[in-house]
């Protein structure tokens, strides 16, 4: 393997010139050599190949597998990456989304939660029970069993798509490989974590490489490419829920979890049944008291409605169930000195103040930066002008109290005036962009000051590009934040806007100063980068929409827009139409209201999940001439894969507009609305020519009369319950 020539993929015959037999021989040869190199590197800790040699072997194998896909083996080492553990895992589309939890902090959040559920279900004082159990601070895992056999384990990922970590999960002692007496399809969900004792032992054993906390250690260990490494790590698993099932486990949450325990899973012994908010708060206090001696990290208590038929009726918001609440423990805090306030400019131009701190340990993690939110927050007032921290402002040189809650950026809770230096000055928030010098202005009602430089502002342009290549957007391997900063400033081969990414290879070919001759690059890595870019020239519509970094348009909204319009041209058509509505104006509420009936505007704003603020931002951005020209250049370089409408079950009311009036007697208005929306209908507040169906309950008034006048179909509650499957 010291023979450099042989290891250099470029010296081998062109892939296209090979026949299947020779390709197969070479794949076998390369696979063996790469597997050997992996073993030397990861297990024996004695690498024999340079990184470049190793990459060359892998690139050659990939090229062969692309040319002869029938020869690619699922366990091919091309699927295994040496360095970053996150790469190389296959993707798993969850049969049922993995949700997150709504958070509560105060006692009132718990009482609100209980009364919201009562009112949603229309339960005045009937029995309503909740389970309360520790919220484990680890990472969630979904285990799929078919006919009692563990066939797949997947991380949560973005909730819809996770990583396939089956081989690794099989090495965890708490995870059974076989179950007896389980439903034919059973997805068990729970948390992978590491105990304090095991974490300490691991960190001591690993010497130099130390994990910040047990959660990171658990995540790092589960997401190892080599299952042998995972096997050597002391991971544990608590089961607390389920995904897809071929048959219900039980009628209540408590019994379902007991059933999981009977099947052989570890479930948390502190799980309790509560009948009101008072009992829930008592269990919370009890669990918090035990927190320090449990031997593993927990960060709160999770309450779940016990009756599973109620859970079904309550259903889900976009990412969280209505039937559960995570009641968090107070965050850990620490005092330190604030050295300096820096201003960062984000991709939408927002000026974000960052506190640079004397490093301090908070909850096991060293913190040296904290967010200061916005200028009001620094000045000691909230967005309505009311005082926060009793009006105490924050200055450079102050002693401040830091807290961390979850994985988010640390925040500042308070400031110690008794330690304020005598010569300190109130902080003056910049009124021009520190990056480009353009005016930074605050729109009325906005707490954020924004740079008005648009694409002229290098900070905005760079942040936009970083967003463009990020994981949920174009996800270009080898082109991350660091490379974007480098290329943005590059005089010979600049990337200043997304389109430039797709002309990079071509510009490089015409350039005298070729990329491959630069330091830090080699022929192999440049080839790899260009291949990764080529690979994304075809991009799904939803990714494109998200990648543009339009304010208020996140991943979820991008998905909704993509599925609604199907193609980029259709979306643009609606946007351009809305922009040409004579009264369109970005900030005039009255005129905005007047637009509600105009066809293009209405097409955008009546999409379920898309609000007026988002539409405003979408239309303004996509019709801004410089921005549009830049996007058009991008579109000229890529091929957009149209979106197909998500397979939703067709129901009797799919796509129809419903109006409820009067007082429903067997279902609350909130539940009826949620049910109608879940069945693909829209629910409007008033009757118009667009109404398809009016549900008139007792006490219906003018709406029923108007419906009759317009010839809208009117039904009563019994009929509605029949449609909604309630009786
Ligand atoms: S139930 C649909 N129960 O917390 C509800 N989650 O912040 C799914 N977690 O993603 C979650 N302990 O990883 C549930 N006892 C528990 C939990 C728990 C920890 C995690 C879980 C979830 C996250 C949400």
UniProtKB/TrEMBL annotation:
Reaction(s) this enzyme catalyzes, per UniProt: NAD(+) + (deoxyribonucleotide)n-3'-hydroxyl + 5'-phospho-(deoxyribonucleotide)m = (deoxyribonucleotide)n+m + AMP + beta-nicotinamide D-nucleotide
Molecular-function annotations in GO: ligase activity
Basic and acidic residues: compositionally biased ranges: 1-11
Required co-factors: Mg(2+); Mn(2+)
Catalytic center residues: 135 (n6-amp-lysine intermediate)
Annotated stretches, region: Disordered: 1-22
Catalytic activity, EC: 6.5.1.2
Protein name, UniProt field: DNA ligase
UniProt source species: Paracoccus acridae
Lineage, broadest ranks: Bacteria, Pseudomonadati, Pseudomonadota, Alphaproteobacteria, Rhodobacterales
């Amino acid at each position: 393997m010291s023979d450099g020539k042989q290891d250099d993929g470029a010296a081998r015959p062109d892939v296209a010139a090979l026949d299947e037999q020779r390709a197969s021989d070479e794949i076998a040869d390369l696979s063996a050599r790469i597997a050997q190199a992996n073993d030397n590197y990861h297990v024996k800790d004695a690498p024999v190949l340079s990184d470049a040699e190793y990459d060359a072997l892998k690139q050659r194998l990939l090229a062969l597998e692309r040319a002869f896909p029938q020869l690619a083996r699922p366990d091919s080492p091309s699927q295994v990456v040496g360095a970053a553990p996150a790469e190389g895992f296959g993707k798993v589309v969850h049969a049922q989304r993995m949700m997150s939890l709504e958070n509560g902090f105060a006692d009132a959040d718990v009482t609100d939660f209980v009364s919201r559920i009562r009112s949603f279900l229309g339960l005045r004082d009937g029995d309503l029970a909740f389970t309360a159990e520790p919220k484990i601070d680890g990472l969630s895992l979904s285990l799929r069993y078919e006919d009692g056999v563990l066939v797949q384990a997947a991380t949560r990922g973005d909730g819809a798509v996770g990583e396939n970590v089956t081989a690794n999960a099989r090495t965890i002692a708490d995870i059974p490989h076989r179950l007896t007496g389980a439903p034919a399809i059973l997805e068990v969900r729970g948390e992978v974590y590491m105990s304090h004792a095991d974490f300490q032992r691991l960190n001591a054993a690993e010497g130099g490489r130390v994990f910040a906390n047990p959660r990171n250690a658990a995540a790092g260990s589960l997401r190892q490419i080599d299952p042998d490494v995972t096997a050597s790590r002391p991971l544990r698993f608590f089961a607390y829920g389920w995904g897809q099932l071929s048959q219900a486990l039980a009628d209540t949450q408590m019994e379902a979890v007991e059933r999981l325990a009977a099947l052989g899973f570890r479930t948390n012994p502190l799980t309790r049944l509560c009948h009101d908010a008072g009992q829930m708060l008592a269990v919370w206090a009890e669990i918090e008291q035990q927190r320090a001696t449990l031997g593993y990290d927990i960060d709160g208590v999770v309450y779940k409605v016990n009756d599973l038929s109620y859970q079904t009726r309550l259903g889900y918001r976009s990412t969280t169930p209505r039937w559960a609440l995570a009641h968090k423990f107070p965050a850990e805090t620490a005092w330190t000195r604030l050295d300096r306030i820096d201003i960062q400019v984000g991709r939408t131009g927002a000026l974000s103040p960052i506190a640079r701190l004397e490093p301090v340990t908070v909850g096991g993690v060293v913190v040296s930066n904290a967010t200061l939110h916005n200028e009001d927050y620094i000045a000691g007032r909230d967005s309505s002008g009311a005082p926060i921290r009793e009006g105490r402002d924050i200055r450079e040189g102050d002693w401040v109290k830091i807290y961390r809650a979850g994985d988010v950026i640390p925040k500042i809770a308070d400031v110690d005036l008794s330690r304020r230096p005598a010569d300190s000055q109130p902080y003056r928030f910049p009124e021009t962009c520190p990056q480009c010098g353009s005016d930074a202005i605050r729109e009325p009602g906005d707490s954020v000051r924004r740079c008005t430089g648009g694409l002229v502002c290098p900070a905005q342009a760079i942040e936009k590009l970083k967003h463009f290549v990020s994981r949920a957007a174009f996800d270009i391997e080898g082109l991350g934040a660091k490379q974007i900063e480098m290329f943005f400033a590059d005089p010979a081969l600049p990337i200043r806007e997304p389109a430039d990414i797709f002309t990079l290879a071509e510009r490089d070919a015409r350039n005298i100063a070729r990329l491959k001759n630069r330091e830090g690059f080699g022929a192999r890595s440049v080839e790899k980068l260009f291949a990764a870019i080529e690979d994304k020239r075809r991009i799904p519509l939803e990714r494109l929409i998200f990648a543009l970094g339009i304010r208020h348009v996140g991943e979820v909204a991008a998905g909704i827009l993509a599925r609604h319009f199907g193609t980029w041209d259709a979306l643009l058509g609606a946007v351009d139409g809305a922009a040409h509505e004579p009264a369109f104006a970005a900030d005039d509420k009255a005129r905005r209201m007047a637009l509600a009936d105009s066809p293009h505007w209405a097409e955008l704003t009546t999409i379920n999940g898309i609000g007026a603020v988002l539409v405003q931002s979408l239309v303004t951005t996509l019709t801004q001439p410089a921005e549009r020209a830049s996007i058009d250049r991008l579109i000229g370089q890529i091929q957009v894969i149209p979106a197909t409408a998500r397979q939703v079950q067709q129901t009797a009311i799919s796509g129809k507009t419903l109006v409820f009036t009067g007082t429903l007697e067997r279902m609350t208005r909130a539940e009826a609305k949620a049910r109608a929306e879940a069945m693909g209908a829209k629910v409007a507040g008033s009757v118009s020519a667009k109404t398809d169906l009016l549900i008139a309950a007792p006490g219906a008034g003018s709406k029923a009369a108007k419906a009759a006048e317009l010839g809208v179909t009117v039904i009563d509650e019994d009929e509605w319950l029949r449609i909604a499957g309630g009786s």
